[in-house]
Design a protein that fits this description.
heterodimer; A: 224 residues; MetI-like fold; 8 helices; B: mainly alpha; flat
């Protein structure tokens, strides 16, 4: 049995430190999701507007955010704000800004898709049954939209958690950075620590994301 | 804006973009093959293989590429599997992309009603003929939107390659910012080069999607 460097994890506070690092990433994703869901719903509703200017502006925003790799957006906000505005923002703040902007775009697109996927006859039938517009929304449209949206929004959470691993690249101390520090500190005593530690980090992400994706899949099947 | 600076370092970005494209397309090509084989294994419910494929898909889809790359690049050599940055980039992208492609193909295959297969068989077609002439053409055209979305997603994911010391666009931009403090110029070139790589795929994708929509039966 070769040395897989798993012993390092049980030395001192290493496991606690790794979990602390993971929490930094998860915290940033949860904050971003919490802000992007309401903003995304708002954006989605705005995007169904018929005004050409509003349509064009929201479309450009959406397309730019979605076509650029999230890491490029992080670089723009993290390095760009310093040089353009002269303010120095922390890596954490830059991450929250970028992931909120990204999450809002993704959520906005989901909401827009769900809203326009409701067939026109739903509105017409509701009107034929003498429901007022507010009643139509409350009892007919919103329940159907929400059912389509909930699994997709849950999926957005796992995507957000996976994407926040990128904050390492703008110098935020999160789980991968802690992992590097642990491996570096134990280089002499356990040269194979990289295997055990990175395997643990991989499993940590899996343990967080897998149940959430399963839940989304189940809800999708139930309400699909 | 210092245009001389941009002009001087343009070749650097060009090389980096070529590297991104090279590794990106190689990884995606392998991912398509993996995804196709996995989707077939799931569709025909091949006994043991089916379980292995499901486990692979769940692991690959529920972990970030950055961590997968770190694992391949720094952890695998410890158990005697050597890597180099380029092989690691291709392997990481193929590992991540395989599961996304598998899901795209599988949903295409599952969207075809069983009656299509039954009708084909009752017309005297062999199972392989039915698959090739009846099921596949429909399944492929249904999976095109998901397939294009995956290609764009995977090309975007290549931006993390600099973490395993590949000299890609991110690496070049960060290097230039660090060396010369020409932040605006470096970031502008970064954005422009990513647009050059990604926009054509995105546009081609929407054209393809529109044309293939007519191929689906009854729609």
């Amino acid at each position: 049995m070769p040395d897989l460097g798993l012993d390092v994890l049980f030395k001192g506070k290493n496991m606690i430190r790794l979990l602390g690092g993971l929490w930094v990433a998860v915290k940033i994703s949860l904050i971003s999701v919490a802000i992007s869901i309401p903003l995304g719903i708002l954006l989605g509703i705005i995007m169904t507007s018929k005004n050409p200017i509003i349509k064009a502006v929201t479309r450009v925003y959406l397309e730019f955010i979605r076509i650029m790799p999230q890491l490029v957006l992080l670089f723009i906000v993290f390095f760009g704000t310093t040089s353009a505005l002269g303010v120095n923002i922390s890596g954490e703040l830059a991450s929250v800004i970028v992931f909120t902007a990204w999450g809002t775009a993704e959520m906005g697109d989901l909401v827009r898709g769900a809203l326009i996927s409701i067939p026109k006859h739903q509105y017409e039938s509701a009107a034929a049954l003498t429901l007022t517009p507010s009643q139509t929304y409350l009892y007919v449209i919103i329940p159907q939209t929400v059912r389509r949206l909930i699994p997709l929004s849950i999926n957005l959470i796992t995507r957000m958690i996976k994407t926040t691993s990128l904050i390492l690249m703008i110098g935020v101390v999160e789980v991968l950075k802690v992992a590097q520090q642990i491996i570096e500190a134990n280089r002499m005593s356990s040269p194979n620590a990289a295997f055990g530690v990175y395997l643990t980090v991989l499993l940590m992400y899996f343990i967080i994301c897998w149940p959430i994706s399963m839940l989304a899949k189940r809800l999708e099947k139930k309400w699909g | 804006m210092n245009w001389d600076f941009i002009w001087e370092y343009l070749p650097l970005y060009k090389d980096a973009a070529l590297l991104t494209v090279k590794i990106g397309w190689l990884g995606i090509a392998i991912a398509i093959v993996i995804g196709f084989l996995c989707a077939i294994a799931l569709y025909f419910k091949v006994p043991v293989l089916r379980r292995i494929v499901s486990v692979y898909i769940e692991i690959s889809r529920n972990t970030p590429l950055l961590i997968q790359l770190f694992f391949i690049y720094y952890a695998l050599p410890k158990i005697g599997i050597p890597t180099n940055p380029e092989a690691c980039g291709v392997a990481g992208l193929a590992f991540l992309g395989g599961s996304y492609m598998a899901e795209a193909f599988r949903s295409g295959l599952e969207a075809i009603e069983p009656i299509q297969m039954e009708s084909a068989l009752s017309l005297g077609l062999e199972k392989s003929q039915a698959l090739r002439h009846v099921i596949m053409p429909q399944a492929v055209s249904i999976s095109v939107p998901a397939f294009v979305a995956n290609v764009i997603f995977l090309l975007k994911e290549t931006s993390v390659f600099s973490a395993v010391s590949l000299m890609d666009l991110m690496f070049t931009a960060k290097d230039l910012i660090g060396l010369y403090y020409k932040t605006t110029e470096s970031l502008l070139m970064l954005v422009v080069f990513y647009l050059i790589i990604l926009l054509p795929v995105s546009i081609l994708g929407s054209v393809l999607e529109r044309r293939l929509r007519h191929a689906g039966f009854g729609s």
